[in-house]
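Entry 14. Structure prediction run on the chain below.
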Amino acid sequence: MMRMIWRGRMRLAMWILFGCLLGAVFVFLRPDAEYRATALIRFEYNENLPDQANPAFWRRGGGTEITSEIVTLTSAAMLGKLIDHLTESGNAEALADLRGREGFGAAFATSQQDEREQLILRLSEVLKAKPIDKSYVYEITAKSKSAHHAEVLANSLAELSVAEAIAHARARAEKASRWFATKAGAIKAELDQTEIAINQFIEESNYTSERDLRQLRKRAREIRLAQQKLLLDTDESKGKLEEILAIKDGADFDLVAQLTGDPVLMTMVRDAAFDKPEFDQRLNQVISRYRTTKTRHEKRLVAMKKNLSELEFQIEAQAKEALRLQELRREKEANSALYENYLSRLKEAVASKNLALSERRIISLGHAVSVQKIPDIGAILLFGIIALLTALTISFAKELYQKRVRTIEDLEDSLGHPALLEIPLEALGRARHILRAARERPDVAISASWRKLRTIFEGRKAKSIYVTSAQSGAGKSLTALGLASIYAATGKKVLLIDANPFHQGLAEMLEVQANHQGYTNALLNNESLDAHSVPTGLGDIDLLQTGDFIAQAADLISGLGFQALVRQAIGKYDIVIFDGDAVLPDGLSVALAAIADQTLLLVEWDKTQRVHVKKAFATLYDTGAKPSLILSQVHAEKLESYGYPPLHPA
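Output returned:
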């Protein structure tokens, strides 16, 4: 598809130019309105009002959609109101002007309703409203044959739109005011209830203050510390008492005195006149004192535990009451803030009713101006695009139904086999003149094609080459001569065999008289090759013609004798080239393709049909040959010559 477009690029460019010119003619000949009037209006709304108040009016998408009345500025309902407004205000002649437009009066139906609908359709054609750069400013443009009527239509729609926008805005503000007033009243009631609950809680609860709660917690900590110290003293007294009781009846009075720590006992032990009864009496007094201290400590511990339990109960109760009081006060603060917010929004909603007139207004009235006809670039480009699509469609259809081979790509796509090259079309004349010119000018396209073929076949080490075509007229003889000339130019000895018994093409092109001696005579008379080949006068190139026995030529070529003759020629010459007949008319090509090392299948440009190419290729391929494809007789302007000029410029 892209190759087809590239090949026909000049034709496509001409089609596009034609379409643009046709569009320009259409634009300049198209009738247009004589006068146009444009009025500017402004639409806004209070963006501070929340969506909850009226989502249907206050929500907009992407920052471009304003309010519902602007979106439907030129709707059927608005234009119907405009008709009523113009009729009531005495400007019905502006509507009558619409009825007088070409082809419009006849479109009116008999009923009044149908006529009104037709008039609305006409108004929608001459009245356009659009925002300026996605802003709140809209321009309303009206076209008419009358300057006065254009101004009346534009300004009347502007006035009607602004009046309805103001009414809508005030209605929205009134609705918002009621909504905010209702919400503020509800929040105020909740706020009063919260205040009453706080006062009642303070009166009924035992909670005094946060300071008193902190004092209670401090007192509880002090009692816990004293309780722990007293518990340690009690344990210490109890342990010492048990130790004294365990050793008091022993003989070690010094140890007993040290354990009690009593100074009187220690003095008695150190005195020389030690009295044991007096010592025991004093020891019993010490033991009694220890027991009294232990009992007193245990009673104090019980009292402390009771006081601590009562204190912790008071702390827990007051903490719960403090938490509840804190929740009530926070609820009061939240309701108070919400109440203030709704009061603020209510004031804004009330103020917006007064701002509606200033926010929605006519910026400037429309004044009619004469409309100059200027080129409509969009219409011109549209016609150019239509012309381009038409050209592409025609080219694609032509390419789709094209049955002839026109390019290398067509040839390769038809067979699924690569092609070698293209050979240009040269004026048929004296072959000697063409070959001499090609040798003297190696830069021409046909000479370059022959040299490329020679390079390819030398790489394939070909000793014999068979030149044929799908149909006659493809330039087989000239290609065989050119290839022989290019080989001979490198010093090689070449034999040309005219293997087409029905048309002596090589003899005609070389202007050699048809010889009665040829390969048919050599085969039938069992003679050598030298007796029948003749020089061509074009260097070291010999020609072997068919000979006298043309009727038996087909049978002789298919026989073993011809194969032996070819082997004899290959032994004597460096290269043997067969100029055969077309593949499809006869069966000689099958035998020659089986004998030659390389088979060259020529396809004539723009004349050979694809189906014939496929048949010829399949016929040669079935013999075991692998034909090399050449697109021949290509016109110079269609040739991919890569800078090589033609031999005979047009």
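Residues 43 and 70 are 8 Å apart (CA to CA).
Filed with the rest of this week's runs.
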